Each structure stands twice: as structure tokens, then as C-alpha cells.
Inverse folding.
């Protein structure tokens, strides 16, 4: 029984998946912070692009 208990702590199955999950979580946090910080600037950029496109297609 002691060997099985030690095996639970030494076992490394799933370690790669946990690392990928942590990396994806970190990327998600960075994207959320970036979008929150630059949100209004990005919205202004897209709005100006839409305005210029709609102005150029008007006949």
C-alpha cells in the first residue's frame, strides 16, 4: 500500500496537459488585459475603417 501511495506522488501522467492548460490560461489573461486596456482604441480604429469603407462604396 505504501508503494501505491508513493506512486501517486511520483506519477507524471497528465503533466503535459496541465502545462498546456496553464499556458492557455496565461494567454487568455494576457488577451483579456490587452483588450481591456486597448478596447476603445481598437473600437475607434474599426469604426474609422467601417466609415471609410461605407463612404467609398456609396454611389
Amino acid at each position: 500500500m505504501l508503494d501505491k501511495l508513493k506512486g501517486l506522488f511520483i506519477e507524471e501522467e497528465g503533466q503535459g496537459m496541465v502545462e498546456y492548460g496553464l499556458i492557455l490560461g496565461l494567454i487568455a489573461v494576457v488577451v483579456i488585459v490587452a483588450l481591456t486596456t486597448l478596447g476603445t482604441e481598437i473600437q475607434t480604429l474599426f469604426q474609422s475603417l467601417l466609415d471609410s469603407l461605407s463612404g467609398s462604396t456609396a454611389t
Notes: The longest helix spans residues 15-57.
